[in-house]
Design goal:
single chain, 336 residues, alpha/beta, six-stranded parallel beta sheet, four-stranded parallel beta sheet
Length: 336
């Protein structure tokens, strides 16, 4: 049967009326089917299909003091490196009966604060944050809300509540050391202008020991921004030997621009990205990059939130998940 046509949403009263049962029987058939007969369950389910009725989860949440919802805040849905984290987080929460509701900040601190306020007003059972909470007022409100909060993909010894991440400054240092070990003298950075990417730039220069030609582009960065960034870098340093890119998507663009200019990678210009996106191993040449266990971040964050929701203590509320450099063809270049 088709759902009934109406300007109002169907109610449990509609289901009970069409099924020919009392309101309490209809409620039990949907929430506690073990208390009613199979015949009654079938009649109620048929009425649900006919009316298009959806249970009021908010009403159930008021009784249990649980919304069964976890809020998730990310900078942008287009950033590939966050996808494994979100997928694992969603799956692990779903197995425990929780749904993840996402919002994106667009790398805007004011929007981040407004989004956090909106999410808290919906009474979620927990909040997952990609990055750190930047606004002091938002941090204070989250602490007052008393819900589990996990910040991720960054590092701080003083998180709002809990954290699973790594040091972006250390990532920059490691890439600079990797480049130096190759013997490259003239290197550049193609980076987005968000805080985490800037931390990696700062770490790179701190290890390099002197300023490095840097092309900053608006976040989130992508292929077009990568092409733009390489053009800027080559204008500053025509005999560039290697480029660190703040994302694998940016590195894609740098590669396209290099090829358009007749530059061979890695023979004329070496490239290293960040994020180890799925496509990075399949680029031609395959892209060297920084790997972060994004799925592991999602799994640990889900575990932390679920433990706290169950009233259990989290023994390690701050976890450094680390990172590693994966060398592929794009940086296989002789020193000199």
């Amino acid at each position: 049967m088709k759902p009934q046509s109406s300007s109002k949403a169907a109610t449990l009263h509609d289901v009970a009326r069409i099924a020919g049962v009392s309101l309490i029987t209809a409620s039990r058939a949907l929430s506690k089917p073990e208390l009613v007969s199979d015949k009654t369950i079938a009649r109620v389910q048929e009425a649900v299909a006919q009316t298009g009725y959806l249970p009021n989860l908010m009403a159930g949440g008021l009784k249990s003091k649980r919304s069964q919802m976890v809020a998730g805040i990310i900078p942008a849905l287009s950033v590939a490196q966050f996808l494994p984290t979100l997928q694992t987080l969603t799956e692990n929460l779903a197995q425990a009966g929780y749904q993840l509701i996402l919002g994106q900040t667009g790398y805007d601190v004011a929007r981040e604060e407004a989004l956090i306020n909106t999410m808290i007003s919906r009474r979620p059972d927990g909040l997952f944050m990609t990055g750190l909470v930047h606004a002091a007022a938002a941090r204070a409100r989250l602490q007052q809300a008393g819900i589990p909060v996990v910040e991720s993909w960054d590092f701080s010894t003083q998180p709002v509540d809990m954290l699973v991440g790594f040091s972006h400054h250390d990532v920059g240092r490691a890439i600079a050391a990797f480049f130096r070990a190759k013997g490259w003298q003239k290197v550049g950075i193609a980076s987005a202008d968000d805080p985490r990417a800037r931390q990696r730039c700062e770490g790179f220069e701190a290890t390099w020991g002197q300023p490095v030609p840097t092309a900053l582009v608006p976040a989130p960065s992508g292929l077009a921004r990568g092409r733009e960034a390489l053009s800027t870098l080559l204008a500053q340093c025509p005999d560039l030997q290697a480029v660190y890119c703040s994302s694998d998507q940016m590195a894609q663009g740098v590669l396209v621009e290099a090829q358009a200019r007749g530059l061979r990678v890695p023979e004329d210009l070496a490239l290293c990205g960040f994020g180890n996106a799925e496509f990075s191993a399949h680029m031609v040449p395959a892209l060297s990059t920084v790997h972060v266990d994004g799925a592991g971040i999602g799994a640990r964050a889900a575990q932390m939130i679920l433990q706290r929701c169950a009233g259990q203590a989290v023994l390690e509320p701050v976890q450094d998940i680390g990172f590693s450099i994966i060398e592929r063809r794009s940086t296989e270049r002789a020193a000199g």
